[in-house]
């Protein structure tokens, strides 16, 4: 059974990252992956290369605008969470989901992050603590960290 968690990708440019995220979503039994904006969609060779068949098991859909995906999920009572470093963000270790809460996590472009209008329309903004000089990680790694953390908190 798939968990009632959804991943939204906001303008991810790398097809390899998208494929890796499909694979991670399958590993954590995510309900759906929503691709938005410039995100490539299956079938594409570069996605398939890193997805290793996960595109056959993870339900997905495409929206031209991330805000349209958010509106749709709000009507279905999802809590919308942007994963981004901002002045309003809370540290992942401090976030505790409510029991049986349906969650939609948004991950942004590899260079620009999540656009400000999407962050503004989120219920929470969560950041992964980072201590290196760059203060950034690959988006596919961020998805894995968030899903691992949430899977522990939702058990």
Helix fraction by DSSP (H/I, runs of at least 4): 25-40%
Q: At CATH's second level, what is the architecture?
A: 3-Layer(aba) Sandwich
CATH superfamily: SPOUT methyltransferase, trefoil knot domain
Counted beta strands: 7
Helix-strand pattern: EHEHEHEEEHEH
Strand percentage lies at: 15-25%
- Radius of gyration of CA atoms, rounded to a whole number: 14 Å
At the third CATH level, what is the topology name? Alpha/beta knot
Total discrete domains: 1
Approximate shape: globular
Any low-confidence stretches, pLDDT <50, length ≥5? none
Estimated structural class: alpha/beta
Read across the widest sheet, the strand sequence of neighbours is 3-2-1-6-4-7-5
Q: Main β-sheet: number of strands, strand sense, barrel status? A: 7 strands, parallel
CATH class: Alpha Beta
What does this 3D model show about the protein?
This protein has 155 residues and is of the alpha/beta class. The chain has a single domain (3-153), classed as SPOUT methyltransferase, trefoil knot domain (Alpha/beta knot), CATH 3.40.1280.10. The chain is 32% helix and 25% strand. The protein is built from five helices and seven strands, in the order βαβαβαβββαβα. It has helices spanning 15-27, 45-51, 66-75, 116-120, 139-153, and strands spanning 3-10, 30-36, 60-63, 78-83, 90-91, 102-108, 124-127. A seven-stranded parallel β-sheet has the order 3-2-1-6-4-7-5, with helices on both faces. Helix 1 (15-27) packs parallel to helix 2 and helix 1 (15-27) runs parallel beside helix 5 (139-153). The longest helix has 15 residues, at 139-153.
